Fold these 2 entries.
Entry 1:
Amino acid sequence: MKVNWNTYLFAFVCFTCAIDLVLTGRDFYKILKLPRTATLNQIKKSYRTLAKELHPDKNKNDPKAQERFQDLGAAYEALSDPDKRKTYDRHGEEGLKRQGNDDSFHDPFSSFFGDFFGGSRDDEHRHVPRGGDLVMDLHVTLEEVYNGNFIEVVRVKPVAKETSGSRRCNCRMEMRTIQMGPGRFQMMQDQVCDECPNIKFVTEEKVLEIEVEVGVPDGYQIPFLAEGLYATLITVKSIVFILNTGEPHIEGEPGDLKFIIRVQKHTRFERRNNDLYTNLTITLQDALNGFDVTLPHLDGHNVTIKREKITWPGARIKKKGEGLPQHDQNNIIGDLYVTVDIDFPKGELTGEQREAVKTLLNQESKHRLYNGI
Ligand SMILES: *[C@@H]1O[C@H](CO)[C@@H](O)[C@H](O)[C@H]1NC(C)=O
Ligand SMILES: *[C@@H]1O[C@H](CO)[C@@H](O)[C@H](O)[C@H]1NC(C)=O
């Protein structure tokens, strides 16, 4: 199915104008299914989930679908902006309107999360020139993968605007037949162009919201359909990248913008699928007597590791359910494996201490040579 985004956006914007006149005070928190204490991240997350669920394209037989989706957009727009949210919390939707509900209606859906439906634009019309795809690595921390996060990317791109004058466009080769004399014809190939309005480029900024989904795998791609094309400059977490210095396309379709999740190496945890691995060094004394350590997890909660038995070097302790949530099913959670390493004391024991150790451990002197296993 081909989604015509322009038509869709137009409908979305105008419908919102219309309902502004009619509706009074909707409960935006209820629409987003959140308590009034919800954090910005929770608001974004809930919006994303509900937008997928309530999208009119997915609820074609429900006459209320459009309305519900617009309520959701309005709720998100009010609550995702800290100033608007404050006004809304105090004076409700009426308050927002009184504040002169600024003209600059920014459409939350189009700037959000890229392609909701995982579809790609149809390939039937390949003769339409298409701008290049832009692919960017997006470096995220393991903390972000564990907790989820939203990253704002400001995309600065030149946008074509009509201006005075005209230019040649849609140029193509056409065959022409010329009569050279009686009964003599010659075929000629000619370039034929149309006249189009002249165009100048105006720089526009747009904020794209990228969700780092809980449990997202390394290499995961997040596409933003039709955001590729003339994107020339991008700011990620306030770092500016120059992406494409080529000529912007004026005709045809824009390419796509794709972000590829790159999970950075963590100083304490290593990730293998849904499981986490870490190393723990303990003293020889703790190895023999037992120990009780707490280690901070990726969201700050403490994991305790407690042993009373003797622990040998290389022992691997499994903490069930302390790994990463699985990407497509967050209720499935991996495990944490802690490999123990023992910090032996340095130096030399006195004769007395040696005797004490001998009495204490009471081990026969023996050794074994082996290879591998
Ligand atoms: C744990 O130690 C082993 C051996 O030194 C090392 O190969 C591994 O990368 C370490 N794992 C982590 C999570 O630091
Ligand atoms: C985790 O343990 C540390 C040290 O034992 C403590 O300072 C910290 O408050 C604990 N954190 C939580 C979230 O309980």
Entry 2:
Amino acid sequence: MRQMSEALQHDIVIVGGGGAGLRAAIAVAQLDPNLSLAVVSKVYPMRSHTVAAEGGAAAVIKDNDSFEAHCYDTISGSDWLADQDAVELFVDEAPRELIQMEHWGCPWNREPDGRVSVRPFGGMTIERTWFASDKTGFHMLHTLFQTLLQYDAVKRYDEWFATKLLIEDGRCQGVVAIEMRTGQIRCIKAKAVILSTGGAGRIFPFTTNGAIKTGDGTALAYKAGVPLKDMEFVQYHPTGLPGTGILITEAARGEGGVLLNKHGERYLKDYDLGEPLEVDDPKHPQKRTMELGPRDRLCQAFMKEHEKGNTIESPFGDVVHLDIRHIGEKKINKLLPFVRELAKNYAGIDPVHEPIPVRPVVHYMMGGIHTDIDTATPMPGLYAVGECACISINGANRLGSNSLTKLLVFGKRAGVAAAKYVRSCGKFDDSSLESQTASEQARIAAIFNRTSGNERIAAVRGDMHHAMESGAGIYRHDATLATTCEKLAMVRKRLGNIQLDDRSNCFNTELTTMLELENMVDIAEAVAHSARQRTESRGSHQRTDFPERDDQKFLKHSMAYRTEDGTPRVEYLDVVITKWPPAKRVYGEKPIESGA
Ligand SMILES: Cc1cc2nc3c(=O)[nH]c(=O)nc-3n(C[C@H](O)[C@H](O)[C@H](O)COP(=O)(O)OP(=O)(O)OC[C@H]3O[C@@H](n4cnc5c(N)ncnc54)[C@H](O)[C@@H]3O)c2cc1C
């Protein structure tokens, strides 16, 4: 590896150039243009996963909607594990942020009378999901990126890969990062660091997540002693394309798409998700019924249908059909053009004429770096926001379209909080930051130069995937989770035996893939151990050996702390309840027992 050169210095370093990172950067630049701000991203910012978001972003805008309703939907969707103070703040700020996006140029779809269009989304009692066709994430990220470009003072480190947090005096004071073009490992000092590194769906083999979603920032915080909250809650999305895992957005169901089993039946009617609604009836109040139920329930229903033998065999595992034919070509082309394009290119069918084969796919991490409502972690100087952070508004199950809005509301909040912290804090001891960087360089050089190992990245990663998929999927049990934990411990041991072939310094993606794998193993262990210790069923975490929700014992966030040998120690933290005491989740008309 290349020798290290002089340290770089900024007031604030943001690691991550997705929606959350860019919104935080704009907030800092607007609040105080004199602050020196850097955005570090392992890919060019427009390639961050936010660009792939399709369906839309939620915020109350319609006259017949209310803040109360958005809060309630989010909290019941979370199976009462969301912190209600965070939800209230989120819901209140959400419309202002989406209007702000409009002013920065985001092309929201509109009604003929000029008002912003909103579409129904899963688990939301009313249409409140703003959208830009079915490429919402692309338009939002573009809007944020072009807005950030106005601020000359912001220094971007595109294609720099952060490998370590620099901690001294009990404070986070920067990061170590590889400049991927040259292979140099650099010390970037800062008074505050904001992590916005996205999710970690890649710890599973079948996911909608881009290849870069390996939980790097989450793992860096974890290694630095910051707890990871609610890691057992992994969201499966009910409609991924078999084989690739490419997402068919919930908007397809929001616009009227239905799910059919092999008998052509809308099987969700059998799963306490209410009665079928007439599609396209504008007078019908939107209820959280059937296909517009929450994602956890829909994925569980798929698994039950599979057990009953009602799913359809495909070369890439069993599927059901998502039928949007009745919506009609004109509306599909206008509102769901990307769905049509994806189905044609990746499933070989035209959804105007044929149903789309779909199956549940890992989509989103509800858990992440523990923060308070201002995005501050317990470590002074370290903030986290976006999918890598757990604030928490998602609890045990996120509602679709809350995430994009969350990036904005809490992204801004992170920028403001970090800027205020930096302006108020004095000088700290930072004498060891360069030697810490040298140690990190030595650690990476040892991996790079290893000549004795007989393991390959792909094989070890494949075993991690298998461990997660087989034991920590939609339904879990103590026995399966115990096996997963054991397999992951073996996977961790094998990391030290992986040998790399690529000796180049220029864009050595084999090296960064190796570092990503190390990060993923940390995250996978946090997920599996937290899941094993939560002996109840709640939201996306379904234990066949503990099928009921247990508020007595588990109306609590799990907090995973990394220990020396890598396995986590799990503690618990009370959930914040403000106005909505725990109750049964109700979809359609009939109350249903949680955990059913
Ligand atoms: C296919 C798909 C569709 C979705 N659709 C919707 C939707 O319609 N509505 C909704 O609300 N949500 C949706 N989501 C979820 C939502 O898009 C994501 O949760 C959100 O975009 C994450 O944004 P982020 O800013 O936290 O991270 P990302 O956009 O993932 O960005 C992470 C950033 O961190 C950087 N980074 C990571 N590791 C490192 C490192 N080691 N060093 C340097 N930089 C690093 C990356 O380069 C990147 O810039 C969807 C998700 C997927 C996968």
